[in-house]
Specification:
Order of helices and strands: EHEHEHEEHEHEEHHEHHHHH
Helix content: 40-55%
CATH class of the largest domain: Alpha Beta
Radius of gyration: 20 Å
Largest sheet: 9 strands, mixed
CATH architecture of the largest domain: Alpha-Beta Complex
Oligomer: single chain
Strand content: 15-25%
Number of domains: 2
């Protein structure tokens, strides 16, 4: 009935915890399967998958590193379920996660209905100021605060790692575009499917917990990559709604304003982040003034990183062909 596709790259330790959580599902094991798509990992991913193959209805496949969209397509074509759930390799499932996805699809059996579950922060990282900000305040990672259980949402909520859909819809009308190695692959596909009536039903009871803490510099890098992917998406689809979602319309003007101050913006936010974590580590806590200042720093830095990613990708794609002569061919990891 349900295929759980987990695409992974060098996260064997986290994958172990994810698979352990799938061993405890209320959905009977004969009603689901797990597919591990190893996207070129060089760690113990295969060992972890082999260990859980005796505990779960699990299959494993390896591919040379090709990025997230390619790995998702691999899993889509290899799986057998009527419904496919793409689960991130750093999100653990609550015991009823799979059952809740299946239940909602039973309530909305038409092919064009997908299901969005709720991903929270695990207790181990929920107190981290950056993780709290990107999920609950700035919503750079997830954007749940405005959602209500049962909402029928558009394609911009077809979020990878916590969404499920009918496999037949993807096989017949569209798969992930492999140009996207990281970011935007889910929304770009969702946009194409929206023209076929795609609706995403939010089930707040389909709960998973993200267990990977992302530090400040890693999140800045993440947003630069997302900015680059958003720009590519805006070049594939000229629709105004995609341009608005991608945030590319005024990116050039924005970068002209902040580009010369980018390093200072990042340094300031990094210092605020370090100060906040130091205060928490010493048991002092964060007063309202410190927290507000920290959030302002995060806002400025993360928006600047996305704009930088957009502009960097725009410049690289618009580089005159003669400038490429004699340069080594490279694959740009979006």
């Amino acid at each position: 009935m349900l295929s759980v596709v987990i695409c992974t790259y060098n996260r064997a330790t986290l994958l172990d915890k994810v698979l352990d959580s799938l061993c405890k599902q209320t959905l009977p094991a004969h009603d689901f399967e797990v597919l591990i798509i190893n996207d070129g990992s060089v760690d113990d991913t295969q060992v972890v998958a082999a260990f859980y193959a005796a505990k779960l209805p699990l299959r494993y496949a390896y591919q040379r590193n090709a990025g997230l969209a390619s790995a998702k397509n691999h899993g889509l074509f290899a799986c057998r379920g009527d419904v496919v759930l793409f689960l991130d390799d750093d999100d653990i499932a609550t015991e009823t996660l799979l059952e809740e996805h299946v239940k909602t699809h039973a309530e909305f059996p038409a092919e064009h209905f997908a299901v969005l579950g709720y991903t929270a922060l695990s207790p181990d990282i929920s107190g981290d100021p950056l993780m709290h900000f990107v999920t609950e305040i700035g919503c750079f990672l997830f954007s749940y605060p405005s959602l209500r259980h049962g909402d029928a949402l558009d394609y911009t909520y077809f979020w990878g790692g916590r969404s499920s859909c009918k496999r037949s819809l993807l096989l017949e009308f569209g798969v992930f575009n492999p140009v996207f190695r990281f970011g935007a692959e889910d929304i770009e596909l969702g946009y194409r499917l929206s023209r076929l009536g795609l609706q995403v039903i939010y089930n707040k009871n389909a709960v998973s917990y993200t267990i990977r803490k992302i530090d400040f510099d890693a999140f800045c890098h993440r947003l630069e990559r997302q900015g680059a992917s958003s720009y590519v998406c805006s070049q594939i689809h000229a629709a105004p709604e995609i341009q608005q979602w991608a945030g590319t319309a005024d990116s050039e003007q924005s970068w002209a304003t902040i580009g010369g101050h980018f390093e200072a913006i990042i340094k300031s936010a990094r210092c605020l982040d370090s100060m906040a974590n130091l205060k928490l580590a010493t048991g002092l806590g964060l007063d309202e003034e410190t927290r507000n200042l920290l959030y302002r720093g995060y806002w400025a830095a993360f928006k600047a990183c996305k704009i930088k990613g957009i502009q960097g990708k725009k410049e690289s794609l618009n580089k005159p062909m003669e400038a490429l002569v004699g340069q080594e061919k490279t694959v740009d990891a979006i």
